[in-house]
Fold this sequence. Notes:
Strand content: 5-15%
Order of helices and strands: HHHHEHEEHEEH
Bound molecules: zinc ion
CATH architecture of the domain at 57-194: 2-Layer Sandwich
Shape: globular
Number of strands: 5
CATH class of the domain at 57-194: Alpha Beta
Amino acid sequence: MSQQLFEDDVRFLQRFLKSAGFNPGIIDGIWGSKTDRAEDEFINKSQEIATAYGTFHQRSERNIMTLHPKAQEAARKFLKRLGDEGINARIISGTRTYAEQDELYAKGRTKPGLKVCNAKGGQSNHNFSIAWDIGIFDAQGAYLPESPLYEKAAKVALVDDLEWGGNWQSFKDRPHYQLITGLPIEEVRARFERGESYI
Length: 199
Ligand SMILES: [Zn+2]
């Protein structure tokens, strides 16, 4: 009976649950029995998806559990396609609260040249649970921050319902993938905050 996801931010959890079709009651930032039950239902649903689509490295699992159920399905199919091609990829980042996004943004500003993030809280699809970043690892398990394998990963695993950050013009973000909503991000944000569906 305690918050398991987004521990510091009840309001964020409620928005996340409600927009994904679970009912935490009124979005008021206050932990209560409805929020608790909705979170349990979300976790049960996530476990069903894992059973149906397969499980992966624990770091991937931890991050997949922060995604919208539709993104969880897409992420698991995505990792399966990469694995089938012998690419050792893990999901190293999933959903971030607005506060976590702001922190990352600030980090990117203080270390010029460090390509971590160009979006503030509420401006990234990571805030709306439909985006993930991959890390690619070699056979010995060492992380490869730069590798032609990021291009290869997109070749083998990019499907119609996914957008790849490597195709962006201004800021090429090769580890980044997100579900395509067909909506401007401002609209996604507005719906997320009201607890309405956007995917
Ligand atoms: Zn990203």
